[in-house]
Amino acid sequence: MQWERGSLTEAAEQRLHTSQPSLSRQIRDLEDQVGASLFVRTARGVELTAAGKAFIEHARIALNQVDAAVEAARRAAQPAKQRFALGFLTGQEMNWLPDAMHVLRDELLNVDVTVSSDYSTELAEGVARGRLDVAFMRAEPDYDLAYDIVDKEPLVVLMPNDHALAACDKVLVQDLVGEPFIAMAGKARVLRTVIDQYLERSGVQLVPAQTVDNPAMVMSLVASTRGVVIIPSYVENLMPWSVTSRPLAGDTPTIDLAVGYRPKNKSSTLHLFLSRLDELVSHHAARLPH
């Protein structure tokens, strides 16, 4: 507030860009309108009267409300940015987010992109309910979604880094018999089905010592129980120093990574994203170490 400068001449000329007589006249008009003296001249300059102090507190609030109203009007005058919500199977964002942002590069100034990670079933629920536009996930069967496969991920074996099988370049699935086996379950049902089918084709029966659906818990159980687990290779990104991985020997099983979306979603950004899936896959492949 300009009265705090103490000098009407200084406030008029330097801050309000008017003359001191003009400012004095405006103050008198304001005092006439209020019906009380707001300022008093003293040896130290101009000070507020008791009425002026009461007035100024309300004036500050009013000015703040005016500023807020101006900002709200400016925001309302600008078209709202479209939101585009991306979901990732936990851990996959490290692999695929750069590629997703690459294919959205032309839209980033006009779209607010949000990113989240979760279980595949939770992602499917989010896409089905419209909370997510697209998700990198498993092709969950119980949802009215469309899926485009973007990758076939090899399954690997995780084990403690000092496990006897860590000395092998590749692990025969038969060598897992008798080891404490950690099975996928719960929300990882698509993965569990793929692993069970692989074990059946291999003629191997592994009795689970533990069941889990969370990659972080997988790591904890491998390290603490000295167990082994068959899991998609992307989880290697989450391994602590105490856990290592080895590929499976023979006909390596894979699991599909899909982009899931709701066919009735009319988002123009989603349409652009889906039209560039081939580019997304190519960009991802080019970033992989050779």
Description:
This is LysR family transcriptional regulator. One of its GO terms (cellular component) is protein-DNA complex. One of its GO terms (molecular function) is DNA binding. It is a single chain. The chain is 40% helix and 24% strand. It is an alpha/beta fold and 290 residues long. The chain has three domains: 2-77, Winged helix-like DNA-binding domain superfamily/Winged helix DNA-binding domain (Arc Repressor Mutant, subunit A, Orthogonal Bundle), CATH 1.10.10; 82-150 and 256-287, Periplasmic binding protein-like II (D-Maltodextrin-Binding Protein, domain 2, 3-Layer(aba) Sandwich); 153-255, 3-Layer(aba) Sandwich (D-Maltodextrin-Binding Protein, domain 2). It is elongated and about 100 Å long.
State the shape. Answer: elongated
Question: Any idea what the CATH architecture of the largest domain is?
Answer: 3-Layer(aba) Sandwich
Element order, helices and strands?
HHEEHEHEHEEEHEHEEEHH
- End-to-end separation in angstroms reads 66 Å
When the domains are counted, the total is 3
Uncertain regions: pLDDT < 50 for 5+ in a row?
1-5
CATH T-level topology of the largest domain: D-Maltodextrin-Binding Protein, domain 2
Q: How would you name the oligomeric state of the polypeptide chains in this document? A: single chain
CATH hierarchy, class of the largest domain: Alpha Beta
What is the percentage of strand-forming residues? 15-25%
| Gyration radius over CA | 33 Å
Average pLDDT, all residues: 86
**Backbone structural class:** alpha/beta
| Main sheet characteristics | 9 strands, mixed
Number of helical regions: 9
Fraction of residues in H or I helices: 25-40%
What's the total count of β strands? 11
